[in-house]
Predict the structure.
Amino acid sequence: MSSSGAQLIARALHELGVRVIFGLVGIPVVQIAEEAIALGIRFIAFRNEQAASYAATAYGYLTGRPGVCLVVGGPGVLHAMAGIGNSSANAFPLLILAGSSETHLVTKGAFQELDAISLLSPHTKIAVRSSLDSIPQTITNAYRTSWYGRGGTGFVDLPADVIQGQGDHISTQIVPAAPRAAADPAKIKVIAGLLKSAKAPLVVVGKGAAYAQAESSIRKLINLTKIPFLPTPMGKGVLPDSHSSNTASARSTALKGADVVIVLGARLNWILHFGEEPKWNANAKIIQVDISAEELGKNNGNAELAVIGDINVVTEQLLTALQGWQYDTSSAYVQALKASTVKNEATAAKSAKVDKIPMTYGRTFDVIKQTLHKLSPPEDGGIVYVSEGANTMDLSRSVFPVEHPRLRLDAGTYATMGVGLGYAIAAHCAYNLPSPEASSGPKSSHKKIVCLEGDSAFGFSLPEVETMARYGMDVLIFVVNNGGVYHGDSSDSDAWLRLQQNSKQGLKGGLRSTSLGWEVGYEKVAEMCGGIGYLVRTPEELARATEEGYKATVPVVINIIIEAGQAKKLEFAWQNSSKKPKKEA
Ligand code: ADP
């Protein structure tokens, strides 16, 4: 019996094990979504393809399988390109399916016509157009290619005549998880020797380790060897933040002092200061373990010690080669790390107690943390944090401890602002929808998704609060509102109004490029669609709203008016703190 192209596409996805599709429908893809729903796949309909594509990338990261996004052609593809860039930059697996105009109308100026294959080929791992006969094989190969090796995007272009045509069902090939590669045993021996003779060894744990679900082998490695470790922002939780070998509070000392460093699932990019001076010791031996051969030696120019292989396998190989060796933690390096930790944590504790209104970032995060921890202790792993906004993300990172992997999402490698609400929806789907794809994280019947959003970051995807409300997602969103990008613009409404007046009259001293509206009522976004909104200014109001918001069963937006003009200056230098190439004499 023949079926429509839309039915064949939905069936191929179902046979691949896809249980959630993120997207935004229109002609000609609406039939695909409807057929998918008929097969029991959940279709999460967004307000903009950008947020839908971001959600699919995060879903890929959290579940360890490609996230799927369905969009229309032309403008739909252009909006979804944001997610394609995000997938490539973060190495998250993403499958994008997009409609396109009828094959016989190509080049005639058809409805939403776009040569998506030419556009996307340089930005994806595979970009193919499907015919009616090749539906299962094109979808399967795009799915597999986005997933195997380093994660990235697979793209399938689906012309309207393919979606609307009639064809026979051909069974889809099952795609098992990728085979795992082991390291060269000779290399492992050398590395074990280096570790044993190191004075200041360090293990850096990146989000690649979280994505690889390598927590049990990495926990074993650190517990048995006592080597200090440093998580990257999304590598937090692979080992518990409370672990005694965690050097996160002494980050600079850890990097600068280390002499042998094993990097598990992290690139030596801007997040790790390129593995170079001045942040790192120039003589440090850096051993990268990565699934991607191209990555090795990219920035420190030395792949001699690098290892190609799967983190799970390589970590076990290393443990065997170390034969029960343990690092002597009475070393000068560990003493320096402890001293630095005490100093840095004391500074943080001081900033958490600053008692003024409008509140500071430090106080704001402290009130939220204290309240949430009473409701859900970190060891239970009941909260997923999603964090974005320059200061909000940077300053909250060290405040909220995570004890289990994949419980913290942020703007990531691309420093993409605007991912937060899409990521929150993805986290809700990954953890709270019954699905065979759901992450094998710690046991918890329902996870609360908590977004920490700067007011600027929140603005990028604000209508997705309605998406959350429509699907009954009880996401708790804090909007840390200082009336601007970065540090906000002024410290009181009179001054802000004066600036706005000047701006209207074209006078100097008007609104800056970083200015946003003063005390905008962001909480109303929740109220307009059946959620709950709170506007808070004091620690007491914030604590009450946090508790009520945590217990709510609908999306909640807590709009927190904080002090403007606060936090770090606009600085770009640290992000690119690499040594400059020397000029020839
Ligand atoms: P972070 O942002 O935490 O520093 P990155 O995204 O820069 O992390 O790096 C993650 C790295 O992990 C990528 O280079 C990716 O190729 C690698 N990776 C992903 N999965 C595995 C795996 N199973 N084994 C080894 N490396 C992996």
About this structure: The longest helix spans residues 332-352.
